[in-house]
Design brief:
With 193 residues, this protein is mainly α. It has 8 helices and no strands. The termini are far apart.
Amino acid sequence: MNFQYTPGATPLDPDEAAGLIPTHIATQSELNVWEEANILKGARWAIRHKKRNLLEEAYVRDLHRQMFDETWKWAGTFRSSNKNIGVDWSQIAVRLRNLLDNIKYQIENQTFEIDELAVRLHHQLVWLHPFPNGNGRHARLMADLLAIRLGGSRFTWGGNSLVAVSDLRTSYLDSLRAADNGKFEMLLQFARN
């Protein structure tokens, strides 16, 4: 398969690309449709497992695995190479544990409102970039799940797919870059738009 990456997407290395499970997929659009169905299955899994603590590494990995287990052999496995985004691959587990501990602390101390706390979790997961692929989609679902568990509601994330090249995707990436600089207003607005 010849992968076509949208702006802001992280290219897979040859070993990661070789982990594609379905052999019938020949185009990027076919892959997107296949992944979408797999992600919906993962979201249903998350709803059924709502009593599990989502702020644990095992849950973060299990959710990714459930979202992509019919698509990628490495689903739920941290990346083992550096990318154009994210922390050094050897630091993923430590940085993820720190992030999850910080979120727990912020919940206990009511540091932020529900939406901001969930959006900050999303941003930091994207910034860590723990998996070879699917990090944005995974981080959005994690934020949705956290918001729901804290008594809020799911985000709309622009109300359409963020996979394809579009003005919506550009707005999303711009809001992530603003959050990289500590300005979360755009991302908060995008999440509820």
